[in-house]
């Protein structure tokens, strides 16, 4: 419950910031870190994983147990043919002894302590717990990076949806103007009816595209709001600026080496394989042999009355020593479990190799996306410039009668498409920068801030 006021305060500050300026990527990430349920799940998992270190240490510490019992008890004992001797009484053979207690009170208490000295099972279990603690930390790190990527992806999805709707609305306005002009010029006998039909058809098609783009934008804003907790209506997003590609990109082999060493997903699979190997060690016959230092103290007492009057029996004991346990037969259970553990270890090793291949493939894809990003951005920028020049020339040509209304509509569509493609390419470059850093285990707030600095202000 203590986290609720803190989250409300953060949300209030975020809303205040939104009212004053555009929502940048860092603000979206900070809100997502506090709001997204996956972040809370990952944090709780990490904190739970840390307790495994204490469990690992406790395995080799002494344990102390106290047990006590009280209840009603009957006891009858009979002994015949015994020899009895005592100072001053001499010796007698064929002596009989009998005791009897009916409905007596039985009390028992015992105190035992145990210190493990040798145990292959405990040693393997300790390693498993430490590996599990490291794995929980890796899961948290991977979830943080995944949340950063998801937040950035949804942020740029919303940016692109906004730009797409803006371009379609702008194009729709131009087509509506062209339709009015075509109708006027047809009425004046200056243009054929085909110009009117072409402009009308394009206007209706754009109207449908605008409606679809509005739905797409609403969905993108809602998805970003889901991860950040920020109201969709308050989001004022900043598109990527022109300088989106990194000036210098380290070689691919360097990134592959980093990813093969530091990728959280790969390291997590390796930790699972190490844990599976320790499970095999736990199931071996050698691991079942244990040597413990033990100490015990206890007392049993029964008091009441029976066939011979009041009686009581009391027994006390104390012991300190070593206890060796060697399993001789488990009916095949140990060997069956060891076979299962071996197969699971093989499965975990195969998953490590699969993950390694996936990480390498993803690293190559992200690196190539960045490697070609600068040239791609330059080509798309030149394409946009050419499309706009073509649009200007087509508008002039239509005014003098050298171009048709269809030519003008196509030029407008190409110019809008080129502008949207350029924005998409800038967003792809920024996302590839984040993906490459995440694959190498280096995606943090500093890297996110670098991408945030590439947004328009």
UniProtKB/TrEMBL annotation:
InterPro entries: OMP_efflux (IPR003423), T1SS_OMP_TolC (IPR010130), TolC-like (IPR051906). It is found in: Cell outer membrane. Residues 1-22 form the signal peptide. It holds the Pfam family OEP. The keyword Signal applies. Belongs to the outer membrane factor (OMF) (TC 1.B.17) family. This is TolC family outer membrane protein.
